[in-house]
Structure formats: structure tokens, C-alpha cells
Amino acid sequence: MSPMTAQIAEKVEAAPRRRSIGEVVLTVDDLQTVFYTRAGMVRAVDRVSFALKAGETLAIVGESGCGKSITALSLLRLIPDPPGRIVGGKVVLEGTDLLSLSEPAMRKVRGNRVSMIFQEPMTSLNPVLTVGRQISQALMMHQGMSKAAAMERAVEMLRLVKVPEPAQRVKEYPHQLSGGMRQRVMIAMALSCNPRVLIADEPTTALDVTIQAQILDLILELQNQLGTAVILITHDLGVVAETAQRVIVMYAGRKVEEATVEELFARPLHPYTRGLMASIPRLGLMRNQTVETGRLQEIPGMVPPLFDLPAGCAYAPRCALADDRCRAEYPPFEEKRDAHWAACWHAGE
Ligand SMILES: Nc1ncnc2c1ncn2[C@@H]1O[C@H](COP(=O)(O)OP(=O)(O)OP(=O)(O)O)[C@@H](O)[C@H]1O
Ligand SMILES: [Mg+2]
Known about the structure:
Blueprint: H1 3-14, E1 24-37, E2 40-53, E3 57-61, H2 68-75, E4 84-93, E5 96-97, H3 103-107, E6 114-117, H4 121-124, H5 131-143, H6 147-160, H7 166-169, H8 179-191, E7 197-201, H9 209-226, E8 229-234, H10 237-243, E9 246-251, E10 254-260, H11 261-266, H12 271-278, H13 324-328, E11 334-337, E12 340-342
Parallel strand pairs: 3-8, 3-9, 6-7, 7-8
Antiparallel strand pairs: 1-2, 1-4, 4-5, 9-10, 10-12, 11-12
Bound molecules: adenosine-5'-triphosphate and magnesium ion.
Residues 35, 37, 42, 44, 62, 64-70, 83, 306 line the site of adenosine-5'-triphosphate.
């Protein structure tokens, strides 16, 4: 174990983990989303499956372009068509397959039973509406609240996400708020209808480190209070170590490893996961530390273009362990240890 991995392992140990995890609320089964591009068809999400339980935080990690956001957007059926399309699989939320719902029925799910926080709040907040209007709209639409009641609830929500002077702030426009405050407003919006599932896609990368920690704490605190299941998409394994119970590692549109956080950090099986762990910056990027101490030591090579994936394992061109079989045959996603899956012919070597 490298000193870095050891430090991360300490973080995993120290993190307060929610114990009251409930029933499965969301099942994703063999999800396939493609993009039709000029260069050819891209399998952005290639047969991804997972289950999510109430109160649980599931992290999805992987390098840029590996399909994390497209997985999240597919769950909400927010893939722009064209050029994209969900071509297979099931997304079952408490017994209902979201992929077979009509669009009007789907609109009742979004922002209500499943909601999402995006990386950059300015792209998802409406600049010409006050934050109060934006939060109250969802409440009026989904919960049938009157305008006055919804506005009152909006103030409550802002108080809940620790926006100071909520009664005043509720009348302001997004541009009048700092980045951290806008992200809190997004969280207030996302949680206002008490969703069963909250998807947070890089919710803190645009923020500075201290604010990042506050926002993450806030999400976890609200999750504890409300029992929400959280899908947390991040590049940052430090964040994963401190917040998630379970982790999915994606590479080139596929799931390559899945395990509990403790297990994954103690025994990463896929060479790609090991590479990601080796590329964690010295604790500089981790929470409660404001000093950035160095650059990422990145995994050599690049994610291959998704329209031109090699025949075998997509990681083989970058993998020190790759042999002829890896280059010829895609490894099955298998349970290699108890509740620990990986897709690698050399898992754990
Ligand atoms: N509008 C689009 N048109 C064509 N291809 C797309 C489009 N959006 C996404 N893709 C394809 O889907 C792949 C996955 O994209 P996605 O946004 O899910 O990556 P990501 O893992 O979220 O990356 P990042 O960490 O940078 O946010 C991309 O590599 C790209 O090939
Ligand atoms: Mg993304």
C-alpha cells in the first residue's frame, strides 16, 4: 500500500458512515446510451447496472469522458436526441420503469422523486427568476402547493441549506449570490420535494476547497435527515473516501469495478482503479486542507475515443499487465471477492 493509499484508508476509517441503509429504491439494469456522431456511434454508457438503497451514497468515479454524466442524465431521460439515445436497459424507481413512462409522466418524476444537482449552478438556475420563484415553482407543480405556501417553504428550504437571511435571499436573483450560495440554492431546489434519489454531478468542483467541504457536509446532513439515496459523481477519490458507502468505477462507458468504499480502498482489483488511486494528489485536494501541494500524477495515456474502442479491454493500451487475451477479449464483470466485482483478466495481480 502506498503512503497515499494508506492516508486515504485512514480517511475511510475515520469517516462517519450512515448505518441506517434501507430498501433498494432504484435499480439500473443493462443501461445503454449511445451518441450518433460523425466519427461513428459512441457507446457512452455500455450495459451499466447497479442498485441504490435508501439513505445510501453511491459514488461513480472515473476520468473525464468515461460516461458518468451521461449515466446520470439517462436516469432522468435528459439525453439530447439527436444526437443521443437510450437504446437499452431498465431504470426502475420503486417498481416503475422510468424508460417506459410517457414524457408527461416523466416530468412528474424529475425534480420530484429524482432530482439532480449539477456542477455549475449558473447553467441550471434561471437568471431572470428570483431564487424563491425557482424553488417554489417545483413545489407548486409537484406538490400542488399554493403560491404563498410554496414561497414560505422556499424560505424554509433556504434556511435548511444554511443560506443566511433566507427571507431576504428568497427575493434575490442568482447573479446576486456567490458560487457557494448558488450551489446551496440548487441543493434547496433539488431537495424541496423530498426526492427518493438525489444525483449530485460534481457538485463542488467549481467551488473552493473550504466551501466544497461545507457543501458536501450539507448534502450528507440532509441525506441523514431525509433518508435520500444519493448518487455522487466525482473525480475526487478523497471525497469518495469520506462520503460514500459504495463505489462504481467507470472506464470508457463501462463499469470496471464495484465494491464498498472500505473494500475498494483496501483492495483495488482493477489496474485502472489502482492507477486512479496512485494519481490522487497528496492530501492537498482533500477536505479540511486548503493548501494544494502538487499536481496530479496522471495515469499515462488517454481514454481511447469511444467510437474507436479496441476489441478487448478498453484499458489494455494503457495497462502494464495487458497481454494478448486482454487485447482480444473483453473481460467479464465478475464477483472476484465477496461483494467486490471487477472486469479484468488480471484482477488483483
Ligand atoms: N452531445 C454529445 N455528442 C456526442 N457525444 C457525446 C455527447 N455528450 C457526451 N458524449 C459522449 O459521451 C461520453 C461520456 O460523456 P460524459 O459527459 O458522461 O463524461 P463524464 O464521465 O461525465 O466526464 P467529465 O468527468 O468530464 O464530466 C463522452 O466521452 C462522449 O464521447
Ligand atoms: Mg460529467
